[in-house]
Design a protein that fits this description.
There is one protein chain. The protein is about 50% helix and about 15% strand. The protein is α+β, with helices and mostly antiparallel strands. The protein folds into 2 domains: about 170 residues, Triger factor/SurA peptide-binding fold (Orthogonal Bundle); about 110 residues, Chitinase A, domain 3. The strands form 3 sheets. A 4-stranded antiparallel beta sheet has the order 5-4-7-6, sandwiched between helices. Strands 2-1-9 form a 3-stranded antiparallel beta sheet. Strand 6 and strand 7 form a beta hairpin. Helix 2 crosses helix 3, helix 3 packs across helix 6 and helix 7 packs across helix 11. The longest helix is centred in the last third of the chain and has 30 residues.
Amino acid sequence: MKFRWQLVFLCLAASCLAAQAQKAATPPPAPDVTLAPSHTPNIPPARPVARVNGTLLTDLDLLREMYTIFPYAKQHNGNFPKAMEANIRQGALKMIEFEELVYQEAKRRQMKISPARLATAEQQLRQRFPNEEYFQHFLQVEAGGSKQVLRTKIERSLLIEDLLQQQVEDKSSISTAEAKAFYQQNLQRFQLPETYALQTITVMPPKAPAANPAKPAPVTTEQDKQMRARAEAALKQAKATKSYEEFGVLAEKISEDDYRVMMGDHRAMKVADIPVPILAVVTKLQPGQVSDLIAAEGAYTIVRLNAHTPARTATFEQAQEELRTQLQRSKREKLRRDLDARLRKDAKIEEL
Protein backbone atom coordinates (compact mmCIF):
# COMPACT_ATOMS: atom_id res chain seq x y z
CA MET A 1 0.00 0.00 0.00
CA LYS A 2 1.39 3.36 -0.99
CA PHE A 3 0.81 5.52 2.08
CA ARG A 4 3.47 8.11 2.79
CA TRP A 5 3.24 9.59 -0.67
CA GLN A 6 4.38 13.12 -0.12
CA LEU A 7 6.92 12.04 2.48
CA VAL A 8 8.20 9.51 -0.01
CA PHE A 9 8.56 12.29 -2.56
CA LEU A 10 10.54 14.33 -0.08
CA CYS A 11 12.68 11.35 0.82
CA LEU A 12 13.35 10.67 -2.85
CA ALA A 13 15.56 13.70 -3.07
CA ALA A 14 17.11 12.82 0.27
CA SER A 15 18.00 9.34 -0.98
CA CYS A 16 19.51 10.70 -4.17
CA LEU A 17 21.63 13.18 -2.25
CA ALA A 18 22.76 10.56 0.24
CA ALA A 19 23.69 8.19 -2.57
CA GLN A 20 25.69 10.96 -4.20
CA ALA A 21 27.63 11.46 -0.98
CA GLN A 22 28.34 7.75 -0.61
CA LYS A 23 29.92 7.73 -4.05
CA ALA A 24 32.40 10.44 -3.06
CA ALA A 25 35.46 8.16 -3.07
CA THR A 26 39.01 9.24 -4.00
CA PRO A 27 39.12 10.39 -6.73
CA PRO A 28 35.40 11.29 -6.68
CA PRO A 29 33.25 10.95 -9.78
CA ALA A 30 32.04 14.07 -11.48
CA PRO A 31 29.18 15.43 -9.35
CA ASP A 32 25.63 15.50 -10.63
CA VAL A 33 24.90 19.21 -10.79
CA THR A 34 21.24 18.58 -10.09
CA LEU A 35 22.11 17.05 -6.74
CA ALA A 36 25.48 18.20 -5.39
CA PRO A 37 25.15 21.16 -2.99
CA SER A 38 28.29 22.83 -4.31
CA HIS A 39 26.80 22.83 -7.81
CA THR A 40 23.25 23.99 -7.10
CA PRO A 41 21.70 24.91 -10.45
CA ASN A 42 19.34 27.76 -11.12
CA ILE A 43 16.03 26.10 -10.35
CA PRO A 44 13.36 27.14 -12.85
CA PRO A 45 10.02 28.17 -11.39
CA ALA A 46 7.50 25.37 -11.07
CA ARG A 47 4.86 25.31 -13.80
CA PRO A 48 1.25 24.50 -12.93
CA VAL A 49 -0.13 21.28 -14.41
CA ALA A 50 -3.50 21.05 -12.64
CA ARG A 51 -5.79 22.93 -10.29
CA VAL A 52 -7.79 20.96 -7.70
CA ASN A 53 -10.51 23.00 -6.00
CA GLY A 54 -8.33 26.05 -6.52
CA THR A 55 -5.04 24.47 -5.34
CA LEU A 56 -2.29 24.42 -7.96
CA LEU A 57 -0.26 21.28 -8.58
CA THR A 58 3.04 21.74 -10.37
CA ASP A 59 5.28 19.94 -12.80
CA LEU A 60 7.66 19.21 -9.89
CA ASP A 61 4.88 17.30 -8.11
CA LEU A 62 4.14 15.52 -11.37
CA LEU A 63 7.76 14.58 -12.03
CA ARG A 64 8.21 13.12 -8.55
CA GLU A 65 5.19 10.91 -9.05
CA MET A 66 6.42 9.87 -12.51
CA TYR A 67 9.68 8.75 -10.88
CA THR A 68 7.68 6.86 -8.27
CA ILE A 69 5.78 5.02 -11.00
CA PHE A 70 8.89 4.40 -13.10
CA PRO A 71 11.98 4.71 -10.85
CA TYR A 72 14.28 3.25 -13.51
CA ALA A 73 14.20 6.61 -15.30
CA LYS A 74 16.65 7.90 -12.68
CA GLN A 75 19.18 5.38 -14.02
CA HIS A 76 18.81 6.81 -17.53
CA ASN A 77 19.50 10.50 -16.97
CA GLY A 78 15.91 11.07 -15.91
CA ASN A 79 14.50 9.97 -19.26
CA PHE A 80 11.36 7.87 -19.61
CA PRO A 81 10.80 5.39 -22.45
CA LYS A 82 9.13 7.32 -25.27
CA ALA A 83 6.50 4.64 -25.83
CA MET A 84 5.51 4.75 -22.13
CA GLU A 85 6.03 8.38 -21.19
CA ALA A 86 2.53 9.63 -22.04
CA ASN A 87 0.86 6.87 -20.02
CA ILE A 88 3.25 7.35 -17.10
CA ARG A 89 2.56 11.08 -17.13
CA GLN A 90 -1.22 10.61 -17.23
CA GLY A 91 -1.12 8.07 -14.41
CA ALA A 92 1.06 10.38 -12.34
CA LEU A 93 -1.26 13.31 -12.95
CA LYS A 94 -4.29 11.34 -11.75
CA MET A 95 -2.34 10.27 -8.69
CA ILE A 96 -1.27 13.74 -7.57
CA GLU A 97 -4.84 14.93 -8.10
CA PHE A 98 -6.06 12.08 -5.91
CA GLU A 99 -3.51 12.91 -3.22
CA GLU A 100 -4.63 16.53 -3.14
CA LEU A 101 -8.27 15.48 -2.90
CA VAL A 102 -7.43 13.15 0.00
CA TYR A 103 -5.50 15.94 1.74
CA GLN A 104 -8.38 18.38 1.31
CA GLU A 105 -10.81 15.79 2.68
CA ALA A 106 -8.58 15.25 5.71
CA LYS A 107 -8.56 19.01 6.33
CA ARG A 108 -12.34 19.17 5.87
CA ARG A 109 -12.68 16.52 8.58
CA GLN A 110 -10.37 18.61 10.78
CA MET A 111 -7.91 15.74 11.19
CA LYS A 112 -4.75 16.67 13.09
CA ILE A 113 -1.15 15.49 13.41
CA SER A 114 0.32 15.72 16.89
CA PRO A 115 3.44 17.91 17.31
CA ALA A 116 5.36 14.89 18.61
CA ARG A 117 4.54 12.78 15.56
CA LEU A 118 5.38 15.64 13.22
CA ALA A 119 8.73 16.17 14.95
CA THR A 120 9.53 12.45 14.68
CA ALA A 121 8.73 12.42 10.96
CA GLU A 122 10.89 15.51 10.41
CA GLN A 123 13.76 13.90 12.32
CA GLN A 124 13.47 10.72 10.22
CA LEU A 125 13.71 12.82 7.08
CA ARG A 126 16.75 14.72 8.37
CA GLN A 127 18.52 11.44 9.14
CA ARG A 128 18.50 10.49 5.46
CA PHE A 129 21.09 13.17 4.68
CA PRO A 130 24.83 12.63 5.12
CA ASN A 131 25.43 16.14 6.49
CA GLU A 132 23.88 19.56 7.04
CA GLU A 133 25.08 20.91 3.69
CA TYR A 134 23.07 18.33 1.79
CA PHE A 135 20.01 18.95 3.94
CA GLN A 136 20.19 22.71 3.36
CA HIS A 137 20.45 22.12 -0.41
CA PHE A 138 17.40 19.87 -0.25
CA LEU A 139 15.54 22.42 1.87
CA GLN A 140 16.24 25.12 -0.71
CA VAL A 141 15.10 22.96 -3.65
CA GLU A 142 11.99 21.53 -1.99
CA ALA A 143 10.82 24.29 0.32
CA GLY A 144 12.47 27.50 -0.82
CA GLY A 145 14.71 27.33 2.26
CA SER A 146 11.77 27.41 4.67
CA LYS A 147 11.65 24.81 7.43
CA GLN A 148 8.02 25.71 8.04
CA VAL A 149 7.13 24.92 4.42
CA LEU A 150 8.92 21.60 4.80
CA ARG A 151 6.96 20.82 7.99
CA THR A 152 3.75 21.64 6.15
CA LYS A 153 4.66 19.18 3.42
CA ILE A 154 5.45 16.48 5.97
CA GLU A 155 2.18 17.17 7.80
CA ARG A 156 0.32 16.92 4.48
CA SER A 157 1.88 13.51 3.87
CA LEU A 158 0.87 12.25 7.28
CA LEU A 159 -2.70 13.48 6.88
CA ILE A 160 -2.96 11.66 3.55
CA GLU A 161 -1.63 8.55 5.25
CA ASP A 162 -4.12 8.78 8.10
CA LEU A 163 -7.18 9.26 5.92
CA LEU A 164 -6.17 6.40 3.65
CA GLN A 165 -5.59 4.23 6.69
CA GLN A 166 -9.15 4.95 7.81
CA GLN A 167 -10.90 4.74 4.47
CA VAL A 168 -8.88 2.08 2.67
CA GLU A 169 -6.48 0.01 4.74
CA ASP A 170 -8.65 -0.51 7.82
CA LYS A 171 -11.56 -1.57 5.61
CA SER A 172 -9.58 -3.89 3.34
CA SER A 173 -8.95 -6.77 5.74
CA ILE A 174 -10.29 -10.16 4.72
CA SER A 175 -11.59 -12.54 7.38
CA THR A 176 -11.09 -16.28 7.28
CA ALA A 177 -14.83 -16.68 6.72
CA GLU A 178 -14.76 -14.35 3.69
CA ALA A 179 -11.77 -16.16 2.20
CA LYS A 180 -13.38 -19.56 2.76
CA ALA A 181 -16.63 -18.46 1.13
CA PHE A 182 -14.72 -17.26 -1.92
CA TYR A 183 -12.78 -20.53 -2.04
CA GLN A 184 -15.92 -22.65 -1.91
CA GLN A 185 -17.63 -20.59 -4.61
CA ASN A 186 -14.61 -20.72 -6.94
CA LEU A 187 -13.18 -24.20 -6.57
CA GLN A 188 -12.21 -24.31 -10.24
CA ARG A 189 -9.63 -21.61 -9.57
CA PHE A 190 -7.79 -23.89 -7.17
CA GLN A 191 -7.30 -26.84 -9.50
CA LEU A 192 -3.68 -28.01 -9.52
CA PRO A 193 -2.34 -29.90 -12.56
CA GLU A 194 -0.78 -33.36 -12.60
CA THR A 195 2.98 -33.07 -12.17
CA TYR A 196 6.11 -35.23 -12.26
CA ALA A 197 9.21 -34.26 -10.28
CA LEU A 198 12.18 -35.33 -12.36
CA GLN A 199 15.95 -35.41 -12.41
CA THR A 200 17.76 -35.97 -15.69
CA ILE A 201 21.15 -36.82 -17.10
CA THR A 202 21.41 -35.88 -20.77
CA VAL A 203 23.99 -36.67 -23.42
CA MET A 204 23.84 -33.98 -26.09
CA PRO A 205 24.78 -34.01 -29.79
CA PRO A 206 27.94 -32.17 -30.90
CA LYS A 207 27.79 -28.40 -30.63
CA ALA A 208 27.04 -26.43 -33.76
CA PRO A 209 30.00 -24.88 -35.60
CA ALA A 210 30.70 -21.39 -34.31
CA ALA A 211 30.18 -19.94 -37.78
CA ASN A 212 26.47 -20.81 -37.78
CA PRO A 213 25.18 -21.86 -34.34
CA ALA A 214 21.54 -21.36 -35.40
CA LYS A 215 21.75 -24.28 -37.84
CA PRO A 216 23.55 -27.21 -36.24
CA ALA A 217 24.82 -29.78 -38.67
CA PRO A 218 22.86 -33.06 -38.74
CA VAL A 219 24.25 -35.73 -36.43
CA THR A 220 26.14 -38.29 -38.45
CA THR A 221 25.88 -42.01 -37.88
CA GLU A 222 29.32 -42.04 -36.35
CA GLN A 223 28.48 -39.15 -34.02
CA ASP A 224 25.27 -40.89 -32.96
CA LYS A 225 27.24 -44.04 -32.16
CA GLN A 226 29.59 -42.02 -30.00
CA MET A 227 26.66 -40.33 -28.26
CA ARG A 228 25.03 -43.69 -27.66
CA ALA A 229 28.20 -45.11 -26.18
CA ARG A 230 28.55 -42.15 -23.77
CA ALA A 231 24.88 -42.43 -22.88
CA GLU A 232 25.14 -46.17 -22.13
CA ALA A 233 28.13 -45.53 -19.89
CA ALA A 234 26.15 -42.83 -18.11
CA LEU A 235 23.16 -45.16 -17.78
CA LYS A 236 25.25 -47.81 -16.07
CA GLN A 237 26.39 -45.28 -13.47
CA ALA A 238 22.87 -43.81 -13.07
CA LYS A 239 21.35 -47.25 -12.42
CA ALA A 240 23.83 -47.72 -9.59
CA THR A 241 22.65 -44.63 -7.73
CA LYS A 242 20.40 -45.17 -4.75
CA SER A 243 19.12 -41.69 -3.88
CA TYR A 244 18.28 -38.20 -5.09
CA GLU A 245 21.66 -36.96 -3.89
CA GLU A 246 23.67 -39.70 -5.61
CA PHE A 247 21.85 -39.20 -8.90
CA GLY A 248 22.25 -35.44 -8.55
CA VAL A 249 25.99 -35.60 -7.92
CA LEU A 250 26.36 -37.82 -10.98
CA ALA A 251 24.29 -35.38 -13.06
CA GLU A 252 26.58 -32.55 -12.01
CA LYS A 253 29.59 -34.54 -13.21
CA ILE A 254 28.43 -36.02 -16.51
CA SER A 255 25.17 -34.47 -17.73
CA GLU A 256 25.58 -32.14 -20.72
CA ASP A 257 22.46 -29.99 -20.39
CA ASP A 258 21.92 -26.84 -18.34
CA TYR A 259 20.14 -28.69 -15.52
CA ARG A 260 23.43 -30.26 -14.43
CA VAL A 261 24.11 -27.20 -12.26
CA MET A 262 20.92 -28.04 -10.31
CA MET A 263 21.77 -31.71 -9.81
CA GLY A 264 19.66 -32.44 -12.89
CA ASP A 265 16.55 -31.41 -10.96
CA HIS A 266 13.61 -30.11 -13.03
CA ARG A 267 11.36 -29.86 -9.98
CA ALA A 268 7.65 -30.54 -10.51
CA MET A 269 6.85 -30.40 -14.22
CA LYS A 270 3.35 -30.13 -15.63
CA VAL A 271 2.43 -32.95 -18.00
CA ALA A 272 2.10 -30.48 -20.87
CA ASP A 273 5.71 -29.36 -20.38
CA ILE A 274 7.30 -32.82 -20.57
CA PRO A 275 8.48 -34.01 -24.01
CA VAL A 276 6.25 -36.79 -25.26
CA PRO A 277 8.95 -39.54 -25.42
CA ILE A 278 9.97 -38.78 -21.83
CA LEU A 279 6.38 -38.59 -20.60
CA ALA A 280 5.67 -41.99 -22.11
CA VAL A 281 8.41 -43.47 -19.94
CA VAL A 282 7.93 -41.60 -16.65
CA THR A 283 4.25 -42.53 -16.47
CA LYS A 284 5.42 -46.13 -16.05
CA LEU A 285 8.04 -45.42 -13.37
CA GLN A 286 7.65 -45.55 -9.61
CA PRO A 287 9.19 -42.81 -7.45
CA GLY A 288 12.89 -43.52 -6.99
CA GLN A 289 13.21 -45.52 -10.22
CA VAL A 290 15.68 -44.65 -12.98
CA SER A 291 14.64 -45.06 -16.62
CA ASP A 292 16.53 -46.67 -19.46
CA LEU A 293 17.86 -44.43 -22.24
CA ILE A 294 15.26 -42.19 -23.84
CA ALA A 295 15.87 -40.68 -27.27
CA ALA A 296 14.23 -37.26 -27.18
CA GLU A 297 14.83 -33.96 -28.95
CA GLY A 298 18.03 -35.12 -30.58
CA ALA A 299 19.67 -36.25 -27.34
CA TYR A 300 19.77 -39.25 -25.03
CA THR A 301 18.19 -38.71 -21.62
CA ILE A 302 18.09 -40.72 -18.40
CA VAL A 303 15.29 -39.84 -16.00
CA ARG A 304 14.90 -40.40 -12.28
CA LEU A 305 11.32 -40.00 -11.08
CA ASN A 306 11.24 -38.38 -7.64
CA ALA A 307 7.49 -37.86 -7.27
CA HIS A 308 4.22 -38.07 -9.13
CA THR A 309 1.37 -35.82 -8.01
CA PRO A 310 -2.03 -36.41 -9.64
CA ALA A 311 -4.28 -33.50 -10.60
CA ARG A 312 -6.10 -32.25 -7.54
CA THR A 313 -7.83 -29.33 -5.87
CA ALA A 314 -5.73 -27.36 -3.39
CA THR A 315 -7.25 -27.44 0.08
CA PHE A 316 -8.39 -24.22 1.69
CA GLU A 317 -5.54 -24.53 4.19
CA GLN A 318 -3.04 -24.75 1.31
CA ALA A 319 -4.58 -21.82 -0.57
CA GLN A 320 -5.59 -19.59 2.33
CA GLU A 321 -2.51 -17.36 2.74
CA GLU A 322 -2.13 -16.46 -0.93
CA LEU A 323 -5.90 -16.19 -1.39
CA ARG A 324 -6.32 -13.74 1.48
CA THR A 325 -3.44 -11.65 0.15
CA GLN A 326 -5.01 -11.51 -3.32
CA LEU A 327 -8.49 -10.72 -1.99
CA GLN A 328 -7.16 -8.01 0.30
CA ARG A 329 -5.22 -6.43 -2.57
CA SER A 330 -8.33 -6.42 -4.77
CA LYS A 331 -10.49 -5.00 -1.98
CA ARG A 332 -7.91 -2.32 -1.24
CA GLU A 333 -7.74 -1.28 -4.88
CA LYS A 334 -11.54 -1.11 -5.11
CA LEU A 335 -11.81 0.96 -1.94
CA ARG A 336 -9.21 3.35 -3.30
CA ARG A 337 -11.02 3.64 -6.66
CA ASP A 338 -14.32 4.23 -4.88
CA LEU A 339 -12.77 6.90 -2.67
CA ASP A 340 -11.24 8.58 -5.70
CA ALA A 341 -14.63 8.59 -7.46
CA ARG A 342 -16.43 10.03 -4.40
CA LEU A 343 -13.87 12.80 -3.95
CA ARG A 344 -13.89 13.69 -7.64
CA LYS A 345 -17.68 13.77 -7.88
CA ASP A 346 -18.10 17.28 -6.48
CA ALA A 347 -14.54 18.53 -7.01
CA LYS A 348 -13.45 21.09 -9.54
CA ILE A 349 -10.37 19.75 -11.32
CA GLU A 350 -8.69 21.54 -14.20
CA GLU A 351 -5.75 20.01 -16.05
CA LEU A 352 -3.64 22.84 -17.42
